[in-house]
Design brief:
This protein is an alpha/beta fold. Helices cover 57% and strands 12% of the residues. It contains 17 helices and eight strands. The chain has an eight-stranded mixed beta sheet, sandwiched between helices. α11 crosses α12. The protein is elongated.
Length: 383
């Protein structure tokens, strides 16, 4: 079993949700650990129990959040969730799902004139970048968070971070964007627009003939032309991209933000949570605690797996007690799983002994409605 000195302090989620000074809760962690369900459950509890006007932003392509909230669909605009029990508290719940391309389009429309926006939208490279470019989803999640925060309409914004290869992609997106904007290749592509509008090939041939041939061979002439036009069209917006990303990053470092790591008691998920906790500590971002989902607990914890198996064997030897023996073996398997999960979870608590933690018992079925979300919210809050 896990030594008692590795037991983390309990996480008081209700204190976080009720605190008017906390305006953003970011749920982060590896994919497939229940981040979307956790984010929706917390947002629902903030509205119903604590009377807060709450919006939950999900980046879940499976659209499970819409289903669990009883909505037919979610889009890039917050939609109020009807039928929740918030009349007494005065709270409201709104939900939305990030549309990466729509968010990018909105940014272009907001920061350019209509003619320039039309030029950008028609560019094939923009179509590819706004839909599939690596890191665009994470950056646009940050962009949308910044927009929601700036509007000032919400008491609380709950963010379900993208299902990325790594949870760190959400924090790294602004830095990757800055590196892209400051890259040598991009500066070369921008040079024609900044030197009188000469074509890419005229400019490059003048001083970079060999470079031009190599780049055209790698990328192709048409792609290079599309990329050059895209970069030139977006040139006036680049500073704004970087500035907004930096502003949102500072918001994430502020006390009004609370990061909640979400993990399952599995080695990869706990390892990812530990990486993220270390990164948050390095970046001086406020880590509020760890939500450990899908934890298994035997109904009779004082009956250990060895004792249970021994009892099952004795009954089998006597005969006539097959059903009881099966129950004891099932209990032993569950108790063994619980011990393994405690040992896995201890890897996090050993590395971060002061981070508050709450464990949520594995549910018998997937959450698919508001009642299920209430159950999860109560479990996270230890109600």
């Amino acid at each position: 079993m896990v030594p008692s000195d590795n037991v983390a302090p309990p996480l008081d989620v209700d204190r976080i949700l009720a605190d008017p000074g906390v305006r953003i809760v970011v749920c982060c962690g590896a994919g497939g650990v229940g981040k979307t369900t956790t984010a929706a459950a917390l947002a629902l509890r903030a509205a119903e129990e604590h009377g807060r006007r709450t919006v939950v932003l999900t980046i879940d392509p499976a659209r499970r959040l819409a289903q669990s909230l009883g909505l037919t669909e979610l889009d890039n605009t917050p939609r109020q969730v009807k039928g929740i029990d918030a009349e007494a508290s005065g709270g409201e719940l709104h939900a939305m799902m990030l549309d990466m391309k729509r968010t990018f389009d909105d940014v272009v429309l907001q920061h350019t004139d209509p003619a320039k926006a039309a030029e950008i939208f028609a560019n094939p490279f923009y179509a590819a970048m706004s839909s599939t470019f690596a890191g665009t989803q994470e950056y646009m999640a940050m962009e949308k968070l910044g927009q929601l925060h700036a509007r000032g309409e919400w008491d609380l914004i709950v963010v379900d971070t993208p299902p990325s290869r790594s949870a760190l992609d959400f924090l790294d997106a602004p830095a990757r964007l800055s590196r892209f904007l400051d890259g040598r290749m991009l500066r070369l592509l921008l040079a024609p627009a900044r030197t009188g509008g000469r074509s890419m090939f005229t400019f490059v041939t003048a001083g970079f003939g060999m470079f031009s041939k190599v780049v055209q061979k790698i990328l192709g002439a048409q792609l290079l032309t599309d990329l050059s036009g895209f970069v030139a069209a977006l040139d006036s917006m680049f500073g704004g991209f970087r500035q907004r990303a930096e502003q949102t990053y500072r918001i994430l470092q502020a006390r009004e933000t609370a990061f909640l790591l979400v993990a399952a008691p599995e080695p990869d998920a706990v390892r990812e949570a530990a990486y993220f906790a270390g990164r948050l500590r390095e970046e001086k971002m406020p880590l509020a605690g760890l939500v450990l989902n899908r934890v298994h607990r035997p109904a009779v914890p004082e009956l250990g797996p060895d004792e249970s198996l021994a009892a099952a064997e004795r009954l089998a030897e006597r005969g006539g007690h097959e059903r009881a023996a099966e129950v004891l073996r099932a209990h032993a398997a569950l108790a063994q799983q619980a011990v393994r999960e405690q040992l896995v979870a201890a890897r996090f608590t050993e590395a971060f002994p002061t981070v508050p933690t709450v464990s949520v018992t594995a549910q018998p079925a997937d959450v698919h409605d508001v009642d299920g979300l209430r159950t999860i919210g109560a479990a996270i809050s230890r109600e």
